[in-house]
Amino acid sequence: MIFNILSTLLAANAIIFSIATAEVKPYEKIAFTNVGFDGTYFPVKKLSNIDSETKCTCEVADKVWFSGVNAPLSDYLSVHMRGPLSLFKFAFYSSPSFIVNNDRSSQDWTRQAYYDANSQTSENITFLAKAGNDSPCLGKALVYAASDGRSAASKSTILSSDNKLSSDQEYVIYSNVSCPKSGLDKGCGVYRNGIPAYYGFGGVTKMFLFEFTMPTETAKNSSSFEYYDMPAIWLLNDHIARTSQYPTNENCSCWASGCGEFDIFEIMNGTEKNHLYSTFHTYQGIEDLAIGIQSYGYIPRDTKNTMKGGVLFDSAGNTISFMSDDITFNSTYAVADINRVLSSIPVNETYSSQLLSVDVTAPTKSPMVFGII
Fold first, then answer.
1. Which residue, 87, 151, 79, is CA-closest to 121?
2. Which of 131, 260, 271, 296 is the most buried (most CB within 10 A)?
3. Which residues of 74-98 are buried (b: 16+ CB within 10 A; e: fewer)?
């Protein structure tokens, strides 16, 4: 028995060592399989004295369950952008059913949200910025973003055609569907008083597409930067930013308990500033949420030219981050067309990994089980 345990540990260490020492290579497509599991997280129940330096606190409620394909990222998600970055187009699509490379079991995609910088078109889009009142335990509140994506506006405003974020600057994209009143049993849960509160983008089977640039930062580096020349595009459970994206108290967000994050294209550190990684921050078979489930391949960051890319969550637990000049942003995306985009990326330009299975089952009759059908 002891020998078996030691053998297992040695084998695991050998795998970890081989991964750590393997050459990390560039790819055009990063694929994850077996995405989704049954698990729990703790939603925020109460925000108290949020303006007080000494009494600012948050309480969490009892755990809630999620389950099924792509869970917990089958819930509503907000889209987050960090500079240096300029956004030219964004589109969100959903499909009743889509399985990669399986035309017979798939249906076409319908565009549910759209932004075009050049034509100044915005459909089902709300741009928000963390430029509101500051709180000792919550940080800055969400407000409507101005056309520059950085400063505050008095109402929903479309990003300008020449929008550009610098290092550390961020904005968030939500839908234009307003949340009901804040409350634990309400559709958007508990959120910060006075913010413009909107739903994110929901559904098990969904796709986010982007046309953008990530130019090299021109400002001189200094200690004032936290993410110097480290752009990113990522997704969060839409509850997170409505309470606090960067809290000093982990009870002020459901993030720490695993409600869900997926990094589509992210520069992870300053030594790999032209390597875009994809990472799951869920508890699917891991214990360190901060490190997450990383791809050991990267997509190259083009600092000179426009990039087109996105992420697709299919109906069978496949998640694919990809770059392709063949991407279009039409109101519908035929099954054959998106499969053609994905299949045109050569096998040797695809990195694939399988997420671990989790042997936990959500209670079938719980009133607090979340999953989008």
1. 87
2. 260
3. bbbbbbbbbbbbbbbbbbbbbbeeb
User: Residues 8-65: pLDDT tens digits?
Assistant: 333 344 333 334 435 789 999 999 999 999 999 999 999 999 999 999 999 999 999 9
Q: How many CA atoms lie within 13 A of 187 on its CB side?
A: 12
CB-based burial of residue 231 (10 Å sphere; 0-12 exposed, 13-18 middle, 19+ buried)?
Answer: buried
- CA atoms of 100 and 11, how far apart (whole Å): 33
Q: pLDDT tens for residues 98-142?
A: 999 999 999 999 999 999 999 999 999 999 999 999 999 999 999
pTM above 0.90, yes or no: yes
Name beta bridge partners: 79.
Answer: 173, 235
Instruction: State the CB neighbour count (10 A cutoff) for residue 130.
Output: 21
- State in Å, rounded, how far the first CA of the chain is from the last one: 45
Closest CA to 75 of 287, 293, 260: 260
Q: How far apart are CA 197 and CA 144, in angstroms?
A: 10
3-state secondary structure of 141: strand
For the four alpha carbons of 291, 293, 296 and 300, in that order, the dihedral sign comes to negative
| Token output for 357 | 């299975």
Q: Which DSSP string corresponds to 284-336?
A: SS-S-TTT-EE-SEEEEP-SSS-EEEEEEE-TTS-EEEEE-TT----SEE-HH
